[in-house]
Amino acid sequence: MRVRSLVVVTVLAAALASVFGLACGASAFDSQSKVKSVRMFGVRPDKPYAKPGETVTLEVLSADGRRDKPRPLKIFWIPIVCVNPRDDLYYLCFLPSQTSDGGSVDGGARLVPPFPPDGGAPPDGGAPVGAGGLSSIPVGIDLSPFLPEGPTFSFQMPDEIIQPRAGMSPYGLAIVFNIACAGQVRLAERVGNAPQQVPIQCTDEEGVPLSPDDYVIGINRVYAYDDRTNTNPVVERVTLDGVDVDIDAGITVDRCVADRRSDCKPVKIDVKVSDSSWEANPAPGAAADQREQIWVTYYSDLGDFQDEARLLFDSTSGRISESDVEFRPPYAPSEGTIWAVVHDNRAGAAFVVLPLHVK
Questions:
Q1: Least enclosed by CB within 10 Å: which of 41, 90, 279, 284?
Q2: Domains, the chain
Q3: CA distance 285 to 21
């Protein structure tokens, strides 16, 4: 199965390293900021760190940048929450025997146990999926009529999710899979020896897999602690060349008139996050004054950014004084969108959707 990209909500340091590499200057990944296909920019949990028994709501920021759209884009959720897979490996969620606490739990939605083998309608009063978890979903049928759909999904953290961890504080992990798909959703047979594959497909009406431009699979992690909390960053304002803008109205820029793209006059865009968003990060072994790292990643369906990401708050020195990015408008007058996703390194996120007017 071809997976164009994975949207991972995580707190792993390795993910941060890649982001800060982008923030330092132009890179081989600059094209990731250009939106020309189905994209899922991020998933924001209302509780980045939850407690056992709490309800968590996940919200997607997505876009459809395809030029041709024979089928509409929809967001589907696999409503079976995978709890504490062995070694926190997401791909073991499809092998319940490999989970450390017995497998998956119902995510709060009502499904048919099992799914209709012929793709037919569910019986009245469908019940939650049982102990079979993700492995109980049959392959090859169109699951779309039976899946929760829309930009949000809620589930309850199991009461016993928190487990002892060797060399670190106890915690629990819940993993939720979703897919932005301009077609039908099916589970596929696992093939080959690549363990990292997620056997979720986006297909046409005949079951033929669609182009990677037509879908994105999301792997969304939410952590549970008894003694830690985290809130999402708060965006206070957006600036254009140092001047505050109305986010709802967006920004207006002149089109490029230079012969060479590199000579196009850029504008500077910045996202300002509140000081209170820079929360303490009480990681084991960290310095007493250690705090979160906060950064922003930009995307647009018009023009291009010199850098697609910028560090906003350093873990020790605080707010970065120069955090703006240069944006070069396109040649033609047009209407588009800029998306900005603010992250902290403990799974918090904030979204900005900025209308773009090129005159």
A1: 284
A2: 35-224 (no CATH), 235-358 (2.60.40)
A3: 25
As given in the structure block, the two tokens for residue 248 are 């709802």
- Read off the amino acid at residue 94: F
Structure tokens at 221: 């992690």
pLDDT tens for 285-332 read 566 678 999 999 999 999 999 999 999 999 999 999 999 999 999 999
Tokens at 299, concatenated: 């995307």
Q: How many CB atoms lie within 10 A of CB 267?
A: 16
